[in-house]
What does this fold into?
Amino acid sequence: MGRAETASDGDVVRAVLAGDVEQFAVLVRRYRDRYARYAAHMLGSVDAAEDAIQDALIRAFDQLRQCREPDRFAGWFFLILRNRCFAERRRGSREPRPLEDAQEVAATSLDGPDGAVERIERRRALERALLVLTPEQREVFVLKHVEGLPYDEIAQRTGATVASLKMRMHRAYDRLRDELEEHR
Amino acid sequence: MTREFHPLVKRVLDGELALGDLPLELRPECEEALRLLAALDRTPLTLSPALDARVMATVRHRAASPATGRESFRAGRVWRWMSAPRQVEIRLRVRPWAVGALAAAAVLAALVLGRPSAPPVGGGAVAAFGSTRAGVLVRFVLYAPGAHRVAIAGTFNQWDREATPLAPAGASGVWTTTLALPPGQHQYAFVVDGDRWVPDPAAPAVDDGFGRRNSLVAVPGARTL
It folds into this structure.
């Protein structure tokens, strides 16, 4: 592993700002997949997630001078990606659709047929239901139940209070239940 | 009509209670909710390997193209060159309007100094008043009585909160520094005691996109002075 790969985010950001543009590739490798699952659940497709991550990385480069705390690049980059995901959902520029099931097919063959189809159906139904949530509801649901973050960390990342996050989440639970009942 | 989960069931989903904490009559509803969560896809996602190449191609293109206003790395080079120790010949070429700006800054400083009941931090001022080969001289002033350290961080020094300290003007609470900045627009903020970000109250501000305010100074081309 090269020295650049083990350098802190802060050191890499400072190197890029000092003119070593190629060092930005370290940040690309470091963050390209870290928030991919979040983006995919927020936008409803892997393709849209890839576009969003690509745009967010380029925007991060463009605005790197505004990154006040280079050692906290991860949180700063997350906010850029988050803004991008919210903007796309609000624009409605792309019809959201449930995540593709390439990985589910693999899971079926590994797990055997018992219950696998039912699990896949349940998963698809849930992904469809997630699309009816508001971006704010969906975000808190994804960060807590997909990414496994506690409420206080979600609050730190998003700037919302824990109380308002819980309110969003509880509305999301009810809305998901409603949606799943309707399509049962 | 919306079928709402019982509040206790929601607390189980939130991880605050266990299924066994619920009364028996709520457990079937809770088991249904937990099955819902169990169906979630938590598989880590790996994006296309071509993503890295696409991003870096764009980044290289932007870094190489002039006059985009996005040249973070070039600003870094300019700042390092500007901040390297060297003998600088300061050639003040004062124009009538620059005298006015300087006078305004002096008046503001006098007002600030003569205001003992001023708030803990305030009274900032920026005035362009001369130029060097390195850029236009810009004076930054912050009234921060009680502060132990004041620095300025901005796009011109990669937001380094240690690199550019202000000097106290005696015990007046006024802190100042003068920087040679290249023409263009610069964002900045004062850093009081190492961790308190304070926008310049006397300068226009812009949202940095993440809920904080950055002050703005537009430095005209050196030739206009």
Q: What stands out?
A: Chain B touches chain A through 54 residues (CB under 8 Å).
